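tool=predict chain=A
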Amino acid sequence: MKHINMVRTLVLSVALAAGTAAFAQISFNIVVAPPAPMYETVPVMQPGYIWAPGYWAWNNDRHVWVRGRTIVQRDGYRWAPDRWEQQGGSYVRQPGRWERSLEARPIKYQKMKKPKHNNGRRNNGKNG
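tool=predict ok
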């Protein structure tokens, strides 16, 4: 019985140590301002989609451009794009997110008309 209690205590200790390590945070300060946003051509959007513009991300020791993308629209929300905010002497990236909006309109989908096929016949099957 003592052997089982010792193993249980050891397993609990290891699990607790692993769980604590998983919640460790790494923080660092970015003191280099991001460059001006790059110009991107926004494609024509299909109904129900919107454009999330590109943004500068931090990668190791420099800013890298992340291209814009299409995302599915959410009824009653608007997309707030990624942005950088200056806090003290550092810059902090705020990721893009959906914000509730009273101005956001419901998505309107148009039904696609079913194409008419004439099975290869000319003049809809009429001769002449």
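Residues 14 and 95 are 35 Å apart (CA to CA). The two ends are 99 Å apart (CA to CA).
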